[in-house]
Amino acid sequence: MDSNALFSALVQLLLLWLSISLHEAAHAWTASACGDPTAREMGRATLNPLRHLDVLGSVLFPMLLLAFGVIVPVFGTLVFFGWGRPTPVLEEKLRRPNWDGVLVLASGSLANLVVAGLATVALVLAIGSLGEPARQAALLALIDRPGVEHSGAFPVMFTLVRLATINAFLAAFNLIPLPPLDGGQIALRLLPPDWAERLAALRPYGFMIGVLTAMALLPLLFVVIGSLLNLVIQFS
């Protein structure tokens, strides 16, 4: 692995860990604010990755993606994807179990979307401040692949692009309406009882279906996310 590929891999892995930690910590913060301090008392209301990372989902799975060179076809981007340990929530302690439960479940993806938005704003500001070389560095980050040369003066542009894409994808993955993913848990609360019962039957297989669905949709999602970022960069 050359230096550019190693830089890409390390940056994305660290950003993935930070993004996973933010997602799980947001669940813990929201649950505590809604009356259940369980996760906070367990030390989960923190951005410390050691409190949130799962050996399989946060380390081994991303490393397998790196080892097998999973490539998004259009942008040629080496993709890191994973998950953390679920944040424990005792719904009986929530002040409004049903509504507060939805807030707790949605908070993780909302936190990821906020970070994706802030990273995009930071990209625009950096391009406005640093000019055309920064724009070119950001566009180069969108089509990164092992062997592509980076401008050493602008690693921050690569980092901001990856921060935006990783957080946007994590939000989309977790909102897939399949239990036990957050989106599935929200759907169980909002659907009519007979539909919710059918959806609940998928719970034992929901996570694996969700991962496979995410992997199948990963190229499309990154095309959409990358295209939106490309428009932002071009018109900044």
Defining key terms:
single chain; 236 residues; mainly alpha; 9 helices; globular
Q: How would you sum up this structure, described in words?
A:
This protein is mostly helical. 69% of the residues lie in helices and 0% in strands. Helix 5 packs antiparallel against helix 9. The longest helix has 34 residues. About 5% of the residues have low confidence.
The strand count comes to 0
Percentage of residues in strands: under 5%
- Structural Rg: 19 Å
Distance between the termini: 33 Å
The chain-level mean pLDDT equals 82
What is the fold's blueprint, element by element?
Elements: H1 3-33, H2 38-41, H3 55-68, H4 97-130, H5 132-142, H6 155-174, H7 182-190, H8 193-200, H9 203-234
Helix pairs in contact: 1-4, 1-6, 4-5, 4-6, 4-7, 5-6, 5-9, 6-9, 7-8
Task: Describe this structure in a few short sentences.
This protein is mostly helical and 236 residues long.
